[in-house]
Amino acid sequence: MAMHDTRGFRDQRTDEWWVARVLTAFGAGHMVPYGDGRRSNADAFVTEGVYFRRLGDETNKLRTCLLPAGCLNTVSHESVLRALDRAKSSELSIYIGPANLVSREVFPSAHRFVDSENLEWVYAQTTSTRVGQDRSVFLTESIELICLDDSALRRTIQFDRPETRGDFLASQGPRGLQELVISVKSLYENLPDNEIGSE
User: Fold this and answer.
1) CB atoms within 10 A of CB 20
2) Are residues 83 and 129 in the same domain?
3) How far is it, in rounded angstroms, from Cα 165 to Cα 28?
4) What is the pTM of this model?
């Protein structure tokens, strides 16, 4: 569980941008605000208070709900939208900035595509380090998949040989990228409704 976990995302139903941040933790029957110096054992916290702010809202009004500890950046986009829907108005009025959002201008439009949830993705051809069976470290060709509509959704896919990545992009094209996105999204948990609560 990381202090002040933050996730920026677009609600594709309304085209509104939101930022969510963990500001409180609950465990052992009491609430502990992050940053007050009293937190000693992160494993003791079972739920966290997640606060949502709509970007562009100058009043800085927040909505809040409870999620299992440590899950803000590991759950599916759909789960975050359900949490937003169930969030209640909060008396807190603080600024939460749009951290972690990816700038669309950084990536060429030819590398962008939209998935079945109407989320926009981009791929970048990169290199990453890999550890061999003999524990040696070497560079390998990779594709980085980045969701432009949700800062938590991104993964690096490594290929065994440089030509494998090129062959994949040439032979599989958009269909192959969509399949990779499905695989990436399967790594994010769909939260049951009973694990999304109000504070």
Assistant:
1) 28
2) no
3) 49
4) 0.83
